[in-house]
Amino acid sequence: MPTAAPTTTHCPLCGQSNGCAVAAGLPAQQCWCMHESVSREALARLPAEARGRACICPLCAREQPAAPQAPAPVVPNP
Questions:
Q1: Could you give the CA distance from residue 78 to residue 60 in angstroms, rounded to a whole number?
Q2: CB 55 within 8 A of CB 33
Q3: Taking the C-alpha atoms of 14, 44, 32 and 25 in order, what is their torsion angle to the nearest 10 degrees?
Q4: How confident is the model at residue 1, as a pLDDT?
Q5: Beta-carbon neighbour count of residue 18 at 10 Å?
Q6: What confidence score (pLDDT) does residue 5 get?
Q7: What is the DSSP string of 42-71?
Q8: pTM > 0.85: yes or no
Q9: Could you count the other beta carbons within 10 Å of the beta carbon of residue 61?
Q10: pLDDT per residue as tens digits for the range 2-25
Q11: Gap between the Cα atoms of 33 and 38, Å rounded
Q12: pLDDT, tens digit (0-9, with 9 covering 90-100), for 20-65
């Protein structure tokens, strides 16, 4: 059974509106992604079927996966 093609108006990572100007019929120069940075980590999280076919939203573009935190050191009682 074929999978559905990614939508051009919603972020494939969170499902919210991606705010893509091109999908709205506007020039690419008006899109938020032309004026803000997109993290490599966010792009790496895209499913293979969405790469090059779907835009992520500004929030997901800035977010980086939470880094694992080291446990707090144990201080012995004197």
A1: 47
A2: yes
A3: -80
A4: 44
A5: 26
A6: 52
A7: HHHTS-GGGTTT-PPPHHHHH--PPPPPPP
A8: no
A9: 21
A10: 445 567 899 999 999 999 999 899
A11: 7
A12: 999 899 999 999 999 999 999 999 999 899 988 889 999 999 976 5
Encode 23-54: b = buried (16+ Cβ within 10 Å), e = exposed. beeeeeeebebeeeeeeeebeebbeeebeeeb
Q: Which residue has the tokens 């050191």?
A: 73
Residue bearing tokens 């020039």: 27
Sign of CA dihedral 15, 19, 25, 27: negative
Has residue 78 got a pLDDT over 60?
no
